[in-house]
C-alpha cells in the first residue's frame, strides 16, 4: 500500500487574520465597494451563460477568459461613473476569482467526475445572501501607523493580536455572518524547525476518540463541543421557527435577533474545535519528527448513523491543523491510505478474512495471537505502512515508536 509524504522544507505562504474596527464612514465605503464588485461578478456570470448559449452547436467557439472579461470591465468603467468611483483592484480580483471558479467547474466536467464531486458553475451573488469579501493585491493597500489603508481612501483600524513576520503580498477584507469585519493577510513564511526528537507516531482517526495514536499520552478524546452547545442552538432555532415571516415578507426584528444568537453559538463551537485541534497538533509536532497519519476523508460518514458525532469530532479540521503545523515546524507527514487498516495486524501483517463490525473494539490476530485495542492496532499499522518501526509503540510506551535509525 502506497503512502504520500509531505515534506516541510523551504518557504511557503500563510494567512494571518485580524479583527477590524470599522467606523461608520468606512462601513459605507466598504458596502459601496462590495456592491461594485458584486455587480462585476454577476456580469461575469451573465457573460459566461451567454457564451455557453452561443457555443451550442456552433463551429467557431466563443471564449470567456480573463482577457475578454478584463475588456468588459474596462468598457463598463468607461461608461459607468458609479463603477469608476471604486478602485479597479478589487474589481479585477473579482474577475480573477470568477475565472478560477469557472475553470475548476469546466475541468471537473471535462474529467467526467460524478455530479456529487463536481464544482458547480459560478452563480450570481444576491445582496441579501452573499457576505462581502474584497481582495486587494500589493498595489491596492498599504499599512501605515498600524492602520490598513485600502485603495479608494478607505482606512481601517486593525486589532494587532500578533505581528506580521514579513510584509504581506495581498489582503482579503471580509465580513462574517455576525457582522464582524476581518483582514486576512497573505505573507511569505519559512519553516521554523523544532529540535529533532528521533521519534515517530502513528495516528488513526475515529469517532469514539477523535485521534488514537501509538502513544497513550497523545490521544485526542472527543471533546463534544457541538453536543454541549446543542441545547442552546435548539432553543434559538425554535425561536426562529416561531418568528419566521410569511413567504415574500421581510424577516422581523425578533427573527433576526434569534438568527444572530444561533450564529454566535455556531461560531463559538467552530472556534473551540479549531483551538482544540491546533493545541493538540502543536503537542504532536513538538514530540515527534515523523507522523504516520491516516489519509482519512470523513465525507462518507455524513450518510451514516454516526453523522452527527462525526461532524462534532471535526476530523477534517483536526487533520488540516496537524498537517499545517507539521509543515510550519519542518516535520515529515506520511499520509497512509486507510484501506484495510482495521483488518491488518500491526505485528505480523496478517489480514482478517472478514470486515470487523464497529461494535468489536478489540483486535485479535488469528495468525500470531496478538490482542490489542482496535484503534491502537490501526495506529501501529500506520507506522508499518509508512515504513517506520511499530515495535515498542504500545500503550505502555507513551513516547511513541523510535525511528528506524534510532531504534
Explain this structure.
The protein is of the alpha+beta class and 407 residues long. 39% of the residues lie in helices and 20% in strands. It has helices at 24-54, 66-79, 81-84, 88-110, 225-228, 230-243, 253-287, 307-313, 315-328, 374-385; strands at 3-6, 12-21, 133-137, 141-144, 147-150, 154-159, 170-175, 181-189, 199-205, 209-213, 220-221, 290-294, 332-336, 362-364, 371-373, 401-402. Helix 7 (253-287) crosses helix 9 (315-328). The chain starts with a strand and ends in a 5-residue tail after the last strand.
Provide keyphrases for this structure:
407 residues, alpha+beta, 7-stranded mixed sheet, 7-stranded antiparallel sheet, 16 strands, 20% strand, globular
Q: Count the helices. How many? A: 10
Q: Over all CA atoms, what is the radius of gyration?
A: 26 Å
Q: What is the approximate shape?
A: globular
Largest sheet: 7 strands, mixed
Query: What's the helix-strand series?
Result: EEHHHHEEEEEEEEEHHHEHHEEEHE
Q: Approximately how much beta-strand content do the residues carry?
A: 15-25%
The overall pLDDT average reads: 85
Structural class: alpha+beta
Unreliable residue runs? 392-401
- State the helical fraction: 25-40%
Terminal residue distance: 24 Å
Number of strands: 16
Amino acid at each position: 500500500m502506497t503512502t504520500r509524504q509531505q515534506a516541510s522544507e523551504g518557504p511557503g505562504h500563510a494567512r494571518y487574520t485580524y479583527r477590524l474596527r470599522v467606523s461608520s464612514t468606512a462601513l459605507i465605503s466598504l458596502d459601496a465597494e462590495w456592491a461594485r464588485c458584486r455587480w462585476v461578478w454577476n456580469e461575469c456570470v451573465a457573460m459566461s451563460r451567454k457564451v455557453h448559449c452561443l457555443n451550442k452547436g456552433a463551429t467557431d467557439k466563443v471564449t470567456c477568459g480573463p482577457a475578454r472579461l478584463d475588456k468588459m470591465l474596462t468598457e463598463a468603467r468607461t461608461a459607468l461613473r458609479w463603477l469608476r468611483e471604486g478602485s479597479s483592484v478589487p474589481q479585477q480580483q473579482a474577475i480573477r476569482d470568477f475565472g478560477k471558479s469557472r475553470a475548476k467547474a469546466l475541468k471537473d466536467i471535462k474529467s467526467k467526475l460524478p455530479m456529487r464531486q463536481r464544482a458547480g458553475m459560478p452563480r450570481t451573488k444576491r445582496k441579501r445572501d452573499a457576505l462581502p469579501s474584497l481582495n486587494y493585491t500589493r498595489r491596492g493597500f498599504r499599512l501605515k501607523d498600524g492602520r490598513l489603508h485600502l485603495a479608494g481612501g478607505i482606512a481601517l483600524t486593525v486589532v494587532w493580536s500578533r505581528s506580521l513576520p514579513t510584509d504581506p503580498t495581498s489582503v482579503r477584507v471580509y465580513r462574517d455572518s455576525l457582522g464582524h469585519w476581518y483582514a486576512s493577510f497573505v505573507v511569505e513564511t519559512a519553516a521554523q524547525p523544532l529540535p529533532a526528537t528521533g521519534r515517530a507516531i502513528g495516528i488513526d482517526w475515529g469517532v469514539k476518540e477523535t485521534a488514537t495514536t501509538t502513544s497513550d499520552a497523545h490521544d485526542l478524546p472527543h471533546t463534544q463541543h457541538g453536543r454541549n452547545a446543542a441545547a442552546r442552538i435548539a432553543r434559538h432555532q425554535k425561536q426562529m421557527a416561531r418568528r419566521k415571516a410569511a413567504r415574500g415578507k421581510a424577516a422581523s426584528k425578533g427573527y433576526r435577533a434569534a438568527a444572530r444568537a444561533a450564529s454566535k453559538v455556531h461560531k463559538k463551537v467552530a472556534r473551540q474545535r479549531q483551538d482544540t485541534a491546533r493545541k493538540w497538533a502543536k503537542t504532536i509536532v513538538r514530540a515527534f519528527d515523523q507522523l504516520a497519519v491516516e489519509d482519512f476523508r470523513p465525507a462518507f460518514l455524513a450518510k451514516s448513523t454516526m453523522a452527527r458525532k462525526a461532524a462534532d469530532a471535526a476530523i477534517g479540521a483536526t487533520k488540516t491543523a496537524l498537517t499545517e503545523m507539521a509543515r510550519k515546524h519542518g516535520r515529515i507527514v506520511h499520509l497512509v491510505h486507510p484501506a484495510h487498516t482495521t483488518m491488518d495486524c500491526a505485528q505480523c501483517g496478517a489480514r482478517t478474512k472478514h470486515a470487523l463490525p464497529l461494535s468489536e473494539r478489540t483486535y485479535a490476530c488469528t495468525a500470531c495471537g496478538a490482542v490489542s485495542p482496535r484503534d491502537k492496532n490501526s495506529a501501529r499499522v500506520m507506522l508499518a505502512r509508512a515504513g517506520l518501526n511499530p515495535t515498542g509503540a504500545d500503550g505502555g510506551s507513551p513516547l511513541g515508536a523510535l525511528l528506524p535509525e534510532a531504534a
